[in-house]
TrEMBL record:
The lineage of its organism: Bacteria, Pseudomonadati, Pseudomonadota, Betaproteobacteria, Rhodocyclales. It comes from the Bacteria. This is Uncharacterized protein. Residues 1-248 form the EAL domain.
Amino acid sequence: LAMLPRIAGALESGRFVLYFQRIRALDALGGDHAEVLVRMHEEDGTVVPPAHFIPAAERFNRMPELDRWIIDATFAQIAAWREAAREMPFSQISINLSGASLDDPTLADFIDERMRVHGVEGELLCFEITESAAVADLERALAFIARAHEWGAALALDDFGSGLSSFAYLKQFRVDYLKIDGQFVRNAANDASDRAVIEAMVHLAQAHGLRTVAEFVAEPALLPMLRALGVDYAQGYTVHKPAPLASA
Ligand code: G
Ligand code: G
Ligand code: MN
Ligand code: NA
């Protein structure tokens, strides 16, 4: 079946579901973070991963709407934990933003309003921007980043090293975290070239005052290795497999 009506139907019937993945601080003193990951539930209960619907949602310009739904639903979950007299179960929660959302000049006002409605402090939040999400209007993206920092939120450059614009993005965007693309991490225990790339990214990050997150940490042996290379956080199946956010 064509993806667009399935996406529209899922938006209308509330069949997008928030998942999350823990991000472990490799420094024992730091608190864990988490990243919000969206899944689409079909009417028959099948769970569709984002790789199957995000490209279509981007093509048909539904990502700004989906990103807004994810932002509001994440804030509502934070408010629900608070109502249950629980702390958020991680010290920071990351939300991915598509390129189209970064190009939307009204996004920051929307987030600001939803933060006030749900009583969410900016210090709890991180926004991930990916270098593959072509930013059409640099000034708008820069204005968003400035607003996010005014709230006390953090910014992360996602999938770092996967595209052609890594260094330009690092120069242009004042971010707080570099997320080392999983292609350099997955096999790093057996690949000296991958380890050299990770080491170089850690130096680059440290020179700019940024912290690093390694993605796709799927083997336990990677954890001490990444810590020794100076990586600050690890995300991947050996730390935590994505699970429904409501179960956190
Ligand atoms: O969850 P999964 O690893 O299948 O996600 C694949 C990709 O889909 C991620 O790398 C991310 O870029 C994108 N993605 C996942 N969840 C979200 C989300 O909530 N919002 C946006 N904009 N992208 C997401
Ligand atoms: O694009 P982004 O990096 O934001 O999305 C992360 C995606 O990578 C999520 O969809 C998540 O399910 C997936 N992921 C996270 N850790 C691992 C891992 O260790 N192995 C694999 N294969 N996928 C992972
Ligand atoms: Mn991400
Ligand atoms: Na990523």
